[in-house]
Design goal:
By secondary structure, the chain is an all-beta fold. The protein is built from one helix and 19 strands. Strands 3, 4, 5, 6, 7, 8, 9, 10, 11, 12, 13, 14 and 15 form a 13-stranded antiparallel beta sheet that branches. A hairpin with a 7-residue loop joins strand 1 and strand 2. The longest helix is centred in the first third of the chain and has 4 residues. The protein is elongated.
C-alpha cells in the first residue's frame, strides 16, 4: 500500500498577551494547523524529481514555527497547503513521501532520512546525492540505499554523485542513506531522482511486446542494441530495428 502523508484540513489562530508592570504590553499570534492523512499518488510511468527546479530557496521542518516537525511523514504536495509553492518543473510532488530536516535547501537538494514512492510498474532508479558534510574517514562514507541495498562507492563530502541503476519491482521504492562504518541509517542530500519504466510489459517473459523477425524486409534495415549502439550483424537477442523493439531468433 502507498504511504500516507498529511493534509491540512483546518487552522486555528491563537493570540497570547504578555504584561509586566513598567513594560509595554505585547501580543504574540500563532496559527496552528490540524493535519489529517491523505494518500500518496502512484507512479505509473517514467518520472523525474529534480530539486534544482523546486522553486523555493529553503523549507526547513525542524523550526518550532513549522507545521511539520523533524522526521514527520509528509507528501510533498501538502507543502502547498502549508503556504509554499512548488514549480511544475520539479516533477509530480503528489508521488513523493519524505521524512527529514530540509524539504528543500539552497534551491538545490532535499536533506533528510527517507524518500519513498509507490510504482505500479517495474523499472530502474538512479539517485544523485551527496553526504551532508565533509567527512574524514572511510567509516563516515554514506551510501545511497535503495530498497535495502547500497549502490555506488558512497560519498565522503558534499560533491554530488549519481548512483548506478537499481532495478526495482512494482511496489514501494524506499531511498535512504546508510553509513559505511556501522550500517546505521543516516541523512543524505538528494538533488535528483530518476525512475525509468521497464520496456518489458511482463518482466518474466523477455519476448513480451516484441515482434519476432523470421525474414528480412525489403526496406533498409537499421539495427541498434538496447544501449543505442548501431549493430551491423545482430546475433540472437533483443534489438531496436527500424524503430521497433524486436526479437532476433
Amino acid at each position: 500500500m502507498p504511504e500516507e502523508g498529511f493534509e491540512i484540513t483546518a487552522t486555528t489562530t491563537v493570540t497570547v498577551k504578555a504584561e509586566k508592570p513598567g513594560y509595554i504590553t505585547s501580543y504574540a499570534t500563532a496559527t496552528i494547523s490540524r493535519l489529517t492523512l491523505s494518500q500518496l499518488a502512484d507512479v505509473e510511468d517514467s518520472a523525474t524529481w529534480d530539486w534544482s527546479k523546486f522553486g523555493t530557496a529553503v523549507i526547513q521542518f525542524t523550526a518550532e514555527t513549522s507545521p511539520y516537525k523533524k522526521d514527520d511523514p509528509l507528501v510533498l504536495s501538502d507543502l502547498i497547503l502549508a503556504g509554499y509553492s512548488i514549480s511544475p518543473d520539479f516533477g509530480n510532488p503528489q508521488q513523493l513521501y519524505v521524512e527529514g530536516e530540509y524539504m528543500v535547501r539552497d534551491s538545490k537538494y532535499f536533506q533528510g532520512g527517507l524518500i519513498k514512492f509507490h510504482t505500479t510498474v517495474p523499472g530502474t532508479v538512479t539517485v544523485t546525492y551527496s553526504n551532508t558534510g565533509n567527512r574524514s574517514t572511510d567509516a563516515e562514507i554514506r551510501f545511497v540505499n535503495i530498497n535495502g541495498e547500497n549502490y555506488g562507492d558512497g560519498s565522503k563530502n558534499t560533491t554530488f554523485v549519481t548512483s548506478p541503476e537499481a532495478k526495482v519491482d512494482a511496489g514501494d521504492v524506499v531511498i535512504k542513506g546508510q553509513l559505511k562504518g556501522d550500517g546505521t541509517d543516516q541523512y543524505l542530500r538528494i538533488s535528483k531522482i530518476v525512475f525509468t519504466k521497464s520496456l518489458d510489459e511482463n518482466p518474466d517473459d523477455p519476448t513480451t511486446g516484441l515482434d519476432a523477425i523470421t525474414a528480412a524486409d525489403d526496406e533498409p534495415t537499421v539495427v541498434y542494441d538496447l544501449l543505442g549502439r548501431r549493430v551491423n550483424n545482430p546475433a540472437r537477442g533483443i534489438y531496436i530495428i527500424n524503430g521497433k523493439k524486436v526479437l532476433v531468433k
